[in-house]
Amino acid sequence: MTTNGNPSLHKTSSQKVVVAMSGGVDSSVAAALLVEQGYQVVGLMLRLWAEKDGAANRCCTPDAIADARRVAAALDIPFYVRDYKDFFKQTIVNFFIEGYTKGITPNPCVVCNRDVRFDRLLNEAMQLGGDYLATGHYARIRQTPDGLHQLLKGLDASKDQSYILYTVTQERLAHVLFPLGDYTKDEIRRMAKAKNLPIFNRPDSQDLCFLGNGDYRAFLQRRAPQVIQPGPIRNTAGETLGQHQGLAFYTIGQRKGLGISAPQPMYVLQMDPPTNSLIVGPAEELGRRELIAQEVTYISGQPPAEPMQITAKIRYKARETEAILTPLPQAQAHLVFTTPLRDITPGQAVVFFNNEQILGGGIIKRSN
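RESULT FIELD:
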C-alpha cells in the first residue's frame, strides 16, 4: 500500500499540482515540498465573503493574499486569486445562519470542505490543467492494491484534520494530495524557517474564518437577529426556571452562563425550537449512549454490510469513543456508544474511524 501524504511517491515532472494557498505556514510548506519533489506547481487562493463593515475573512485578508504572493514568488510558481465571495456566502454563511434558525449547532467547516474546497476549488484546479489539488491539511491518503483510496489520520495527533474531511469521495481523493500528513506541526514550522519562507512564524488561524472578531453571537445578532429571541428555561418536568437570551447562545452540555438558581448544577440538555425553550437538567440527565446521524457518507462509497465496531468523534476536539455502527436506509446511521456522552449535539458531525482509517460520517440528527 502507498500513501500520498508523502507526494514523492507520485513524483513526475509532467504532473501539475494546484496548491490551495492561504498565506499561512501549512499551505506554503505544502507548495514548497511539491516544488522540491518535481511537480509543476501552481498556487491558487480564494477570495471569500466577509461583512462589508467588518474585518476581512481570515482566510483571505489583504495581508494573507500578499503573503501568499510572496511565497509564490520565492518558489517561482504562478499564483492566482479567484473570487468566491458570492458562492461562499450562499453556501457556507447562509448554511451557518440557517442551522441556528433551526435550533441546531451547525459545522460550516465540514460543508466548506465538501462544497468549496473539494468541489469548486478542485474543479478550478482541473480547469487550470492540474492533475491534483493539494492542501495543507494534516491527513493522509492510502491507495490499496485494488485501487481504493483510503483517508487516514495525520501523523500529528494534535493537528489531525481528518475529522472535517470525511465527505471527500473516492473520485475526489484520486485527485487530492496532502503533503503534510506525514509530518508534525513543529517539523513544518522548522521547514518553513529553513526554506526562508516569509511566513514561518505566522500564527495559526482560529475559529470560523468569516467571523471577523471570532464572536459568533455578535455575528448572529448582526446578520440574523430573528434567531436571538429570549425564551423560557425549563427542566424536564416542564417547570420554568428562568429565561434564556436566545437558543443560539447555548450548546448541549453547557453549564456556565445559564443565569438560574438550582439546588444542584444544571446543564443544557436540549433546545426546543417550536416553543423556543431551553431544556436543562442535572448531570445525571445529560449523558446519552445513542444517536441517529443523517446525510451519512462513506469514504469507500459503500456502507458496511452489517453492524461493525468502530470508534467515533462527535466533535472535532472530542475524544474517540467506541461504538457500534449500524447503517440505516436513506443515508442514515445508528450509533450505540459503550459509554454515555454528555455533549451529543444535533447539527455537529459524527465521524467514524477504524484505527487510523476514516470510514465516513454524517450529521447528528438526534440523540437517544
